[in-house]
């Protein structure tokens, strides 16, 4: 291995590590707030890439029907729960949150799918994928929120096969690659670095910094931190632990949507690619103890570098 090959492998490792960092941040964010190891998290990434590919090819993405179905069921469950508790005045708000807002991008996709620029396609993809995570939380995880961590993990694993099966029915079995938003390379210290790598690292750094500032300086971030440290204590001081959980899943959905858009042009995505993609971020989160964002980021970069350099000696090591 000479210096040129080492530099190329370093680029690959940093690019992969940046992607795994964003995944690990999502895992840690959800786990610290809800105790849920969101094993089906990678499926949202696969759905994001599949959705963008469908929009780029003028087809209606299967995500549209998935969001619509989840929104209808989540609204029905929430309204029934409120009516049983005698909180009828909160029903209109529940309909707004769980039905109207999630289906807005669905309506936009149905009306505008043939008249979208590349930037608009990306924005619509994020808007479609983003509500899936909180809708899944309301339907699947909230009813069993007091279950053991192991039970929650098993449910999350089962959920992977449900989502993958739905993706197979709506998107098909063929692998896809999306059209890249950036191309070319720049010279850095005498080494040619691809703009895609720069984009990966920049977005990962932006997300890491943004989350750090969010948790430190915003009221919503402090509420999430309080819920993560002591959910019972947070409830006693008036913080809605369920609201914090929904918000954590929403942020994780945004991260997953953007990761799917970033990696779509670089690897072939299939309907069931999510589990293997998410596993790399899961390992990074484990190396961070599932509680520390900086350590999760460091662990993810290590995973990316080890993967890149190990694959040089034997592809099976990857």
From TrEMBL:
The keyword Cell membrane applies. GO terms for molecular function: transmembrane transporter activity. Its main location: membrane. Belongs to the binding-protein-dependent transport system permease family. LivHM subfamily. GO terms for biological process: amino acid transport. The chain crosses the membrane at residues 20-42, 62-83, 95-113, 119-140, 152-173, 193-215, 245-271, 291-317. Keywords: Amino-acid transport, Cell membrane, Membrane, Transmembrane, Transmembrane helix, Transport. It holds the Pfam family BPD_transp_2. It comes from the Bacteria. It is found in: Cell membrane. This is Branched-chain amino acid transport system permease protein. The keyword Oxidoreductase does not apply. One of its GO terms (cellular component) is plasma membrane. It is a multi-pass membrane protein.
